[in-house]
Amino acid sequence: MSKGIPHALNKVVEPFLIIVGSLSISMMLFGAFVAAAGANPFEVYQTMYRAAFGTSFSWQNTLIRAAPLMLTALCTALPGYLGLIIIGGEGAVVMGGLFAAIVALTMPNAPPMVVLTTMALAGMAAGAIWLAIGGALRHYRAVNETISSLLLNYIAIALLNHLVTSTFRDSESLNHPSTHHIGEANMIGLIPGTDLHWGLVFGIVACVLSWFLMHHTVFGFASQIAGGNVRAAQIAGLPVGRLILIVCCVAGAAGGLAGMVEVAAIHGRANDTLNANYGYAGILVAFVARNNPLAIIPVAVLLGGIRASSGLLQRAHELPDATVLVMQGIIFLVILFSETLYGRFSRMPKQGAV
Amino acid sequence: MDVGWWGVLIAVLGGAIRIGTPFLFVSLGECLTEKSGRINLGLEGTLVMGAMTGYAVSLHSGSPWLGVLCAGLAGMTLGALHSWLCSFKRVNDIAVGIAMMLFGTGLAFFLGKPYIQPSAPRLPSIDLGAWSDIPQLQAALQINALFLIGIVVAVVLAWMLKHTAWGLKVRVVGESADAARALGLPVHRIRILSTAQGGFLAGIGGSYLSLYYPFNWSEGLSSGQGLMAVALVIFARWHPIGCLWVSLLWGGAAALGPSLQSVGITGGYYIFNAIPYIMTLAVMIITCSPKRTLVGVPHDLTVSR
Q: What are the pLDDT digits (tens) for B89-116?
């Protein structure tokens, strides 16, 4: 049926062109916005580029921010294969970081390797359970998963604040209630030869593994069927409930791992800095990447760069730090709008390009 | 006069009205939007944008009521943007709502940066408790005119939805877009108008936050009220009068933590503050079921599918 571009290529080329086009239009809109705010858009973009990708130091800043974004984007992207819109990444990060810190504090004399492994497992388990609640409620109680996962974010943050101000409070953390420090020896350390911590490796590995899981295993195939048509999947005998639970657990584990890395590589303790909006920015990454785990990696780097440029934008152009939030919002809206374009430029018949 | 534990009850009742008013406006807005078959998760962003606009206009013009009006107009603009985007094929209203939430809050933080310090004129309140000599009761019955306006809006909205041609059109569009099209109704236009009007109400709810209670503009002003409203509408069975009762209930729940603090119970402060979220989640778990459709749900609504 396809005359010019073969189907497989078309499936890659069309999204790529539409996404690049959407990002360009977002840049124009954002340019108009900063121009209206009294800044020169060309200089703003120059500053952003310099702050995000200009030097090895800025690359490092960007990649450190991109690492948790890769993991939190999976929180939205993987359930997306099942047709769920889950936005509970923030809660998974918070719970993951909180429980990673708590288990580390229960084992003061264990060797660092054991502590870190346990922390990672505890963080992943906490994130997995937290995100799976939303998926389970969707399947078994028909509760809208978007709303429940967002409510669970607020509950997770309340739980974090409660525990770090009561049971697990380090009495020396006066102005900024936190847990005790997990110990310098237990910090995760840097990738040899760089100034980057291991979170980046975790992020990339998690994305690649997720891609393999969803695109090259029977499990992933079954999930995509269930996402396409739940009733058809049930008639075909697929255990839809179990698929939803497992996918949400994997996705939540990624978010929990992001929280664990925040604690073990950056803060050393759990406190409300865990609630740094990585979860919400991850939603945007997942939507721009159209839920494809491999596409998440470059998109996360791009968004990490945008977020890294916030400080310099403030200093060089006197733009408030919320400027990057506006840019994220514009990109998000344009990307969603671009959904309507799929299939229009394609030479494929309509049902082939959704 | 020492009122002891009665003080907690009085404070909760007062809080029900004081904290419930923004819930009331946002849930009425969401109710109207959902009646037309769309769900607007972006009302959280609308609320924050309304709060910022109301505060800024009130500061510059000296008139808090003008601030309320402009907050409504800002909310209307965001609502119109949401529903305009959703009227394109394959654009998901829930996803656009998430984007509008981030966009609205980002825009409000950007534009509102200069207004974090200065203090704007406040909306006046009406003393309904002047007859009492108990200070707690007097404080609880200091009611803002917006609450009374909200009650009127709820009654009028309920009446209009049920008894007017316009209300019937909105409901038809919400029940079945196909049937509405067959009747020759302009589906997109009705949904855009309903969502814009819903945004107007949510914007007013936001201005209440910044101009009356807690009466400031800061980036932490709203904490999910706009989002919880979506769940409140489910609990209220898509009925405006139900929205009124549910908002009061949630206002009271949110006031419980601070009220207990006032009698010396400070433990679990954050947990008490989480009660509205936990209640919302619990209500959704109890009322939703995979086996039946909810009573009163607009059939075309994504949230019910």
A: 889 898 999 999 999 999 999 999 889 8
Contact B94 A342 (CB under 8 A): no
Decide: helix, strand or coil at residue A144: coil
Q: In this structure, is residue A304 part of a structural domain?
A: no
Residue A11 has pLDDT above 80, yes or no: no
Separation of alpha carbons B65 and B47, rounded Å: 17
Higher pLDDT, B224 or B42: B42
Establish if A168 touches chain B: CB-CB under 8 angstroms: no
Total number of domains constituting chain B: 1
Question: Of B85, B98, B105, which is closest to A283 when you measure between CB atoms?
Answer: B98
One domain, residues A214 and A349: no
**B91 chain-A contacts, CB cut-off 8 A:** 336-337, 339-340
Q: What is the ipTM of this complex?
A: 0.90
Burial class (CB in 10 A: 0-12, 13-18, 19+), A14: buried
Looking at the structure, tell me whether residues A248 and A200 fall in a common domain. yes
Residue of A146, A151, A326 with shortest CB distance to B94 = A146
If asked whether residues A14 and A120 sit together in one domain, one would say no
Domain extent at residue A14: 1-39+319-354
Its sign, for the CA torsion A237, A240, A246, A250, is positive
Collect all residues of chain A within an 8 Å Cβ-Cβ radius of residue B105. Answer: 325
Chain B contact present for A155, CB below 8 A: yes
CA dihedral B59, B61, B63, B68 (to 10 degrees): -80
Quick one: A142 and A266 in the same domain? Answer: yes
Residues 235-264 of A with CB under 8 A from B: none
Whether residues A102 and A141 fall in one domain: yes
- A330 in contact with B, Cβ within 8 Å: yes
B289 is in which domain, residue-wise?
5-304
Q: What is the pLDDT of residue A354?
A: 40
pLDDT 10s digits, B129-150: 778 777 777 777 888 899 999 9
Specify whether A18 is located in the same domain as A142: no
Q: Which residues of B touch A325 (CB under 8 A)?
A: 102, 105-107, 109-110
Q: Is the pLDDT of residue A352 over 50?
A: no
- Chain position carrying tokens 């008490």: B272
Q: Is residue A45 part of a domain?
A: no
pLDDT at residue B245 above 90?
Answer: yes
Confidence class for position A2, pLDDT limits 50, 70, 90: very low
What is the CB-side half-sphere exposure of residue A256 using CA atoms within 13 A?
Answer: 27
The CATH code of the domain that includes B16 is: 1.10.3470
